[in-house]
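Input structure tokens:
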């Protein structure tokens, strides 16, 4: 916490909201420790804590065991029974999860979907399923909804950009649909960026992380010190439509030679359709068949070449490969070989290429993190307490 104003000012750097951020950062503070960390007067600290107690945001979780004399109570952020509702939507699959405020999945359901369907048809089905999942535990209180979608998102406004993958979603009032069921904030993020944020959190890394979600489509996210880069148009990480050749196969975006047209899961299914491959799972199960191996290697090499440019641009310490195809060893090996061959050596010296560490939970983790950061930000908490 940076203390630049007077700590006893009601909306200053040690407002109740700031105090809660501090308490959330580490479980088990004593009042004495908070006094030392904030520089507040005892009266002010107790007044702020009282506000947080009355709002149900902190609780006493038990006494310290080792203190001499009267044991001190430990204070914690009250996350009990509070959950985030998460929709992690890809192009062909979706996952609905109820997560605790640390992003741990408590309950979830996966389903097949076609994200190119109009939201007016798809959303009611998703919301109905989420309702059922929530009803399993009547005490759970939803504090926010996180949604990952496979298209461009302006995170500041939550607005979806134009996308060939999701025609009909641009400008659709998703927030209204959500709020009609749960009157809580909705945070929308691109699926690959949510995945990247979750992976950065799971790996506990500071610095620069690059993560790629390689499945039906191809998307990437760059995380710098726990913040994912969204970009001016909300399109940061949209690497699938980088043209890697002037000619080449026609892409769904209407141009020729995009990376996605050569190497996406959709492109692989088209290439291997005559070979009995109808789903990405078929490809995964046949990843020893020579024809499938060749197709995967060629696709991975093209992806690796594009990633080499990104690696040279941002010099990450970690490159995470996720998605059903990205986690295949044959793909990971070829991507890593190509990245190391194509990027300058000084941009890859410390680079580690790893499979997704949170597995299928990565995006849920990232989206929950976004929800918690938003709902319990100092400004939001102060506003809820009527201080701003
Ligand atoms: Zn394209």
């Amino acid at each position: 916490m940076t203390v630049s104003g007077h700590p006893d000012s009601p909306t200053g750097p040690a407002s109740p909201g700031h105090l809660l951020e501090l308490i959330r950062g580490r479980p088990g503070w004593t009042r004495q420790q908070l006094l030392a960390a904030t520089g507040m007067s005892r009266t002010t600290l107790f007044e702020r804590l009282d506000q947080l107690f009355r709002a149900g945001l902190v609780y006493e979780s038990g006494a310290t065991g080792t203190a001499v004399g009267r044991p001190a109570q430990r204070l914690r952020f009250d996350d009990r029974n509070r959950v985030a509702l998460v929709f992690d939507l890809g192009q062909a699959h979706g996952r609905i999860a109820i997560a605790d405020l640390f992003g741990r999945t408590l309950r979830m359901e996966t389903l097949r979907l076609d994200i190119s369907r109009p939201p007016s048809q798809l959303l009611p089905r998703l919301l109905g399923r989420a309702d059922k999942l929530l009803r399993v535990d009547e005490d759970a209180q939803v504090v926010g909804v996180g949604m990952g979608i496979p298209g461009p998102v302006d995170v500041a406004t939550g607005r979806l950009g134009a996308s060939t993958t999701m025609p009909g979603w641009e400008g659709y009032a998703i927030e209204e649909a959500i709020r009609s069921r749960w009157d809580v904030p909705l945070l929308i993020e691109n699926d690959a960026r949510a995945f990247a944020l979750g992976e950065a959190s799971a790996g506990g890394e500071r610095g620069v992380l690059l993560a790629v979600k390689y499945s039906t489509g191809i998307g990437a996210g760059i995380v710098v010190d726990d913040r994912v880069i969204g970009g001016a148009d909300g399109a940061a990480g949209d690497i699938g439509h980088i043209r890697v050749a002037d000619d080449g196969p026609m892409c769904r975006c209407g141009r020729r030679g995009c990376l996605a047209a050569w190497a996406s899961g959709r492109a692989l299914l088209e290439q291997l359709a005559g070979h009995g491959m109808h789903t990405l799972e078929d490809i995964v199960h046949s990843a020893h068949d020579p024809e499938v191996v060749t197709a995967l290697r060629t696709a991975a090499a093209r992806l690796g070449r594009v990633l080499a440019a990104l690696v040279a641009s941002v010099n990450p310490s970690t490159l995470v490969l996720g998605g059903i195809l990205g986690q295949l060893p044959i793909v990971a090996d070829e991507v890593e070989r190509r990245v190391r061959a194509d990027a300058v050596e000084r941009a890859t010296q410390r680079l580690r290429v790893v499979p997704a560490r949170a597995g299928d939970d990565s995006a849920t983790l990232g989206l929950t993190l976004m929800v918690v950061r938003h709902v319990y930000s100092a400004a939001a908490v102060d506003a809820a307490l009527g201080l701003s």
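Residues 16-78 form a domain with the Arc Repressor Mutant, subunit A fold (CATH 1.10.10.10). The chain has three domains: 16-78, 82-194+363-375, 195-359.
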